[in-house]
Amino acid sequence: MTEGATFPDLRGASVFITGGGSGIGAALTEAFLRQGAKVAFCQRSDATPFCDAMEAATGNRPLFLPCDISVTDQLQLTLATAAKVHGDITVLVNNAANDTRHETLKTDQAFWDWSMAVNLRSYFFACQSVIPGMKAAGGGSIINFSSISFMMADKGYAAYITANAGIVGLTRTLAREFGPDRIRVNAIAPGWVLTERQKELWVTPEALSAHLARQCLPDPIQPEDMAGAVLFLASNASRMMTSQTLVLDGGFISS
Fold first, then answer.
1. Could you say which of 64, 160, 178, 192 is catalytic?
2. Catalytic annotation on 123?
3. Where's the Ketoreductase domain (predicted)?
4. pTM for this one?
């Protein structure tokens, strides 16, 4: 990972990242570890090798807690465990999501409900779980990952797009409700980030070339390109910033 800015107030901070062992989440976990934060993260698959690699690279080992975020009581227990080990969570990054493609006319209620459980409901209940601890700590920062998909009038994954629009609404209402407690709530809307999942499923030379032609900036977006903005939103450097959505898409939706 390229060296970036240092945020001294993040040293020792209790940070929790959903989906923090792969893709964008892995880049965020590493970034916070390099700041000296106490990082806990969850995902369904075993992340022990990733934790070993992070400890070797940064000298700071993350706490991995297996969890299916679509199961609310499991998610709540996972967050409580992280807070017990690291202290009240003062930085929450809701990052985990699933953008499985689906046809609207073939989508049944079970798939819709599952997609909402992963992509929106888990965000709400993760926020609900950490806010009391943030209040006790005198404040905190919640960063919700959305997507530019709902800004593009795109097609092929209506449930995911709907959830990402909902994330921005959730961000704004929680920012208003808990601003008096000095809890800041912001969102990040990435463009097409070239995670391994994206490369395996959808990236082709033709598709990538067409996408980059619409960006203002010519370079493909990498997972680590999300880290700087997240660290900024987590730190006191952005202490008067809340209820905002940062678009990190290389200028795609402006073209």
1. 160
2. no
3. 13-192
4. 0.96
